[in-house]
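Support case: user asked for a sample of complex input and structure output to validate their parser. Sending the pair below.
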Amino acid sequence: MDDVRAASAGDRQAFQRLYRAHVDRVYGAVYRLAGYDHARAEDLTQEAFVRAWQKLSGFRGDSAFGTWLYRLAVNVALMDIRSRGADPVTMMDEDDIPDHGDTPFCAAEREELERAIGNLPPRARAVLVLHDVEGWRHEEIGAELGMAVGSSKAQLHRARGLLRKVLGERS
Amino acid sequence: MNEFEWLRQTRALREPVTPRRDLWSGIDAALDAAHAEAEKPAPQRNHRRVQNWLIAASFVGLSLFAGSLAVHLRDRTLANATAAATLDAGRWRPNDPRLAGAAVELDAASMELRQAMEQAPRSPALQRLLYRTQKQQSQLRQMEHQAG
């Protein structure tokens, strides 16, 4: 907390210590939302820390600094997704996605699962990562992505269907 | 795979990831750049203030110009109306309808020449034309007098 206070007073070294302490968690979330793309995740993480420095004076300590920073970074990643426009997955008909039953995820290796998530359309990926990986509720996702709770649920359902299709074809 | 099993697998992906390279140097440079940018606004603000003043001054200038133009036009219209009224009051109207038509034409020509001479009072051509018009008007008066 001392580093937070010092950094908000303009101490760059204190902010660097905060960066060292939190970068892996921040980078992890941004990396997943960016579709496991290192180059984009690096840019977005840098942007998140720059914004954190600029907004640090507004941090009141209502939550832990790490949580505040994590939410800010996720928001930066989601803004990047939003700026990329409409998501083709919303146009897909659910009936077109073949159902491979209950087996595919059992056979999926972790890397394969990550690759499959990375290949999802950005908005569907964002919903799936936030809900299934990061543990967010649909209400929170809807608020962050500017969509109704029902749309968030539909996106998740479709994203899971797409994953099942991709993993099923490989297995 | 049921929901619980699926979530168990996906939640396992939620792990911290170390970036491939140290991002601090880039962040530090971006903060320096932002700091340098924040230093700039003072002259920019002054520049903007000067621009605002110039815009305001040009607005005032335009308003004054438009106002004086409106006053000038109003005065001129009034003067023209007064002159026309005076001319109309003193206008000679012959009883003979043939002469009356010529008198109206000569009156109109005379008035137009006077207006033109306001723009170019020393124009010899206009002076000559006005003199000739006035001469024709006096001839017309003589004709009416002889006829009457």
